[in-house]
Write a structure and sequence with these properties.
- This protein is an alpha/beta fold.
- The chain has helices at about 15-25, 55-60, 80-90, 90-95, 100-105, 125-135, 150-165; strands spanning about 5-10, 35, 65-75, 110-115, 135-145.
- It has a single domain, classed as Rossmann fold, CATH 3.40.50.
- It contains 7 helices and 5 strands, in the order βαβαβαααβαβα.
- The chain has a 5-stranded parallel sheet with strand order 2-1-3-4-5.
- The longest helix has 18 residues, at about 150-165.
């Protein structure tokens, strides 16, 4: 059984992405969920003056898991600002904490994205290319529709099933 953890990066901790996560894992899941809003994580800094924020302790926790699920809403055709900061800070693991960066090699990454208008083009590229660069295994993305368009609602069950197949 794969040991999984979910990282939620959204402006609203209990918004549409949180609901999408729970559509996949249910409310009683044993998969830990970390909301980036509950942490103090600064943007990437070339001088690394942010070393004492919550980012490195978070990564130290993540290396114990086989599967890291990154959950984000689709904002303006890309990931949320919180998730972008999380991804940008991977640079710290290439510069000042290489020991942690090495521990991420081989970890599986899956993206769970909520959206309410239309699917973005190229959304997965930043994630898949980051995984390639870091030596992690990109497992894909499940786009969970959270709107009311009947045509898009038809795909929702398939996307939830896809995510469940990877996560639980």
């Amino acid at each position: 059984m794969t040991k999984a953890i979910i990282i939620l990066g959204s402006s609203r901790g209990k918004g549409e992405t949180w609901h999408a996560i729970h559509e996949v894992i249910g409310n009683q899941s044993s998969i830990p969920l970390i909301d980036l809003n509950d942490l103090s994580i600064s943007p990437y800094d070339y001088e690394h003056s942010n070393q004492n924020d919550d980012y490195i302790p978070l990564i130290e926790k993540l290396v114990a898991y086989d599967l890291i699920v990154l959950a984000t809403p689709v904002y303006w055709y890309t990931m949320s600002a919180q998730m972008k900061i999380f991804i940008d800070r991977l640079s710290d693991l290439l510069e000042i904490r290489k020991d942690l960066g090495r521990k991420l090699r081989g970890k599986k990454i899956f993206i769970l994205a909520s959206f309410s208008t239309s699917l973005p083009k190229g959304f997965e590229d930043a994630f898949s290319q980051t995984c390639d660069y870091m030596g992690m295994e990109y497992l894909g993305c499940s786009f969970i529709y959270r709107g009311m368009d009947p045509a898009l609602l038809e795909t929702k069950a398939n996307q939830i099933a896809l995510a469940k197949n990877v996560m639980v």
